[in-house]
Amino acid sequence: MKKLKVAIFISGRGSNLESLIKSSFKKRSLVEVQLVISNNSKAKGLVIAKKNKIPSIHFISKKNFESRVIKYLKNIDIICLAGFMQVLDSKFARKWRWRLINIHPSYLPDFKGLNAQDQAIKAKAIYSGCSAHYVTPKIDSGKIILQKKVKILKKDNTESLSKKILIEEHKIYPRALQMVAKKILNRQT
Ligand code: GRF
């Protein structure tokens, strides 16, 4: 079975990276993770890549990231952003349209942008969640692939909410990736 080749962009901890790698090892996975790219040399996710024998590269600065990364993406079918703390330029987003996805820790369109969990707590929202979505030039606004709601209790704070949301992120992101891969494979046949 032909598997699509995935690159994962990270900047930090890498827990979503880990869940994507783990699920890609499943026999029926439609994807294989070929490469991890970090814009931060100290990202813990780089250790996770190494542990799982996935090649990785990191850039020392965020400058010209898009033009410098191109040569590594020649054989890549899908890019997953997983805690990648940089807004990719619109030319890049347009070039990778329908093949570039992200996970965001809110039930979009609520709480776009940074510190989404904190935004939800401060807004006294009764629920938040997470959303796997396509990336477009407009931040956190691309078509939703999968979403999951998470209840916010009175006792919740940013930290406890983040933990609850992260559990759901780890479930929906790998599923969303399989859905995207399936769509691409169907288009090719
Ligand atoms: C996650 O909450 C993700 O939704 C957001 O950044 C965080 C990354 O966490 N975009 P990790 O690096 O995957 O552990």
What ligand species are in this complex?
A: 5-O-phosphono-beta-D-ribofuranosylamine
Number of helices: 6
Q: What do we call the CATH topology?
A: Rossmann fold
Largest sheet: 7 strands, mixed
Euclidean distance between termini CA atoms:
13 Å
Report the CATH architecture: 3-Layer(aba) Sandwich
For the record, the count of structural domains works out to 1
Please give the radius of gyration in angstroms. 16 Å
SSE arrangement, N to C: EHEHEHEHEHEEH
Unreliable spans are none
Number of strands: 7
Determine the mean pLDDT.
97
CATH C-level class is Alpha Beta
What class would the helix/strand composition place it in? Answer: alpha/beta
Strand order of the largest sheet: 3-2-1-4-5-6-7
Q: How much strand?
A: 15-25%
- Shape descriptor reads globular
